[in-house]
Structures are given as C-alpha cells and as structure tokens.
Amino acid sequence: MTHIHADLGHFVSAPARLHLGFVDMHGGLGRRFGSIGLAVSELDAQVWAAPAAVLQLEGLAAERVAPIARRLLAATADQRGLHLITHALPPAHVGLGSGTQLALAIAAAGAGALGLARSPRELAALMGRGERSGIGIAAFEEGGFIVDGGRGPTTTTPPVLARLSFPAAWRCLLLFDERTQGLSGAPERAAFDSLPTMRAASAERLARMVLVGLLPAVAESDFRAFSAHLAQIQALIGAHFAPKQGGIYTSARVGAALMELARAFDLPGIGQSSWGPTGFIFTPNAAVAEAVAEACGQWIGAGLRCQIVAGSNTGARHTRCDRPPSGAVPMAGSIAVIS
Predict the structure, then answer these.
(1) Do the domain assignments include residue 316?
(2) 268 near 317, Cβ under 8 Å?
(3) Counting C-beta atoms within 10 Å of the first and last residue's C-beta, which end of the chain has fewer, N or C?
(4) 317 belongs to a structural domain
(5) Would you tell me how many other CB atoms lie within 10 Å of the CB of residue 119?
(6) How far apart, in whole angstroms, are the C-alpha atoms of residue 105 and residue 88?
(7) Cα(158)–Cα(145) distance, rounded to whole angstroms?
C-alpha cells in the first residue's frame, strides 16, 4: 500500500442541484438557455483524496471516477497519483446534476490534496462541465437559488446573474422513478439539437416570470407566489421538451402522482428537474412535507420513491483531514479498484 501523507488529505462534500427550468430557449438576443437552479441537501457527492504514487480508487462508481481522476492528473506537471475514496453520490441521470457534482468534488478534493490552486470555474472548465448550464457550478461554489445567463458566443461557463439564499423553512419532496432515466451524453445533445426553436413570446414570458415573479418571491419568502410562478415556468418548459421526453414528464407515473398531490394539498409548485425522471413538489415547511410524504404510499407501492430535501445555501464543504471524516464511509455495494 502506498504511503499517504497524513497532512494532505482533502474531503469535499458537494450538494446536488435541481434544474427548475430554462429562461430562454429562443436565442434571438444572442444567448441560449439560461438556467434556474436550486442546491439541495441530503444528496451530496462526497469524495476524499490524498496524494499517492499511483491512482487508487475505492468506494462508489469507480468506472465514473477513473476518467475524471485521470483527466485531473493529466493536467498536473509532476504526474503524481491520488488515493480517492468516493463515499456518496446522488443517483445518476435522474436530473440531480450528479455528473457535474461528482466531477467537481473529485477535482476539488484531488487539487486540494496535491496543493493545486484552482477555482471551481477553472476546475469545471478542466472537467468539461457547464456545456449548457452554470447552475451546477454555482451550486458547488455557494449553493442557494440560482439563475444563470446562458451561453453567448464567447461563453466558457454560463455566468451567474442571481444567487439568493433559499428560505430555510421551505422543503421539497422529490419523487424518483427508479425504472427509468433521463437523457444524458450524446442522446441529450442530439435532443437539444433537434428541438424546435421556442417562440419568442414564450421566451419573453419565461424571462418576465423569472425576473419579476420567481426571484422576488424567493427574496421575500413568498411561498404562494414562488409556487405559482414555478408551476407556470414548468408548464411552458415541459410542453417545449415533451416531444423528446414522451410528454411533459419523462415518467408518466411521476407526473400523475405530482398532479394528484398538488390537488390534494393545494401545492401548485410541481415539476421535473432537467430531463427527469425525478419530479418535485415544494412545501412551505417540514410538517407539510411530511404529510405529503405520508400521502405518497400508493405511489411508493407502484414503484416510486420519495425523499424530502431542503435548500442548501452553503455550497461545497472542504475539510483538510488525514482520513475521511467520521461517518463518511463508502455506502453499501461499494467497490475497490487499484490502478
């Protein structure tokens, strides 16, 4: 076993994010996309790294970790190795931004362990993240509720236009359909390329609802206004993407459950994160979230899974430590690979 320098270990815990919609799928002003996002708790990517003579991988998803780690090491002048332990990950390809958060967590932990000074945006560019959306990078940097400016002709990573602390009392119930996944990689790029151009009037409506609807509602902790505007944004975005995902929701079961729960509890703030299939319903506090979760019984029996999360207003957490923090151990089913 390669000796690990005990004073150079670096642990990173990076929050997952919800993608709540796009601001402009028209592009008539020279920019495209513009994303709305929220960093959330309880679904962090957690990675510990320390310098080593070779690349050593332990924990989860070694087949995903290895190319990211090698890409980082290829950018270092001395070609040192790393001992990486991946302790926790959000589910992949379900709309939680797990690819970006894993890449940034590995890159930040590895760079910290090797003494490399790199900002999150530099690491994101190095890892090839932020192709369309900057909210995953912004969630890693500071967390919170985020709107980015999309991509222009010279954009490297989309700029953050607004970042607000998300109201601490509010909760979000996530509904997972583990029988399906959202688009990613080449199929996702092909879907974006073949989507029709959004009507200018629809893009203008989206921008107005974000600027003078959604953002002020978060700033003033106005839950009803937030829910109403989010529902309208999600309806517009869902209709635009429906031809490529089989409907407004990638999972018809998730969509049916959310609409029933929204009616039963008078909670209009429902939708799908990114390509799904993960859906969400926002609640004004933890007690209502628990009540909604209790009502999910019939849907859970039909193969769905629910989880309550809160907004995360802190971004990624970095800790210097000679070994992973207490309690941060690889989840069941982890694998170990030495290369």
Answers:
(1) no
(2) no
(3) N
(4) no
(5) 12
(6) 11
(7) 15
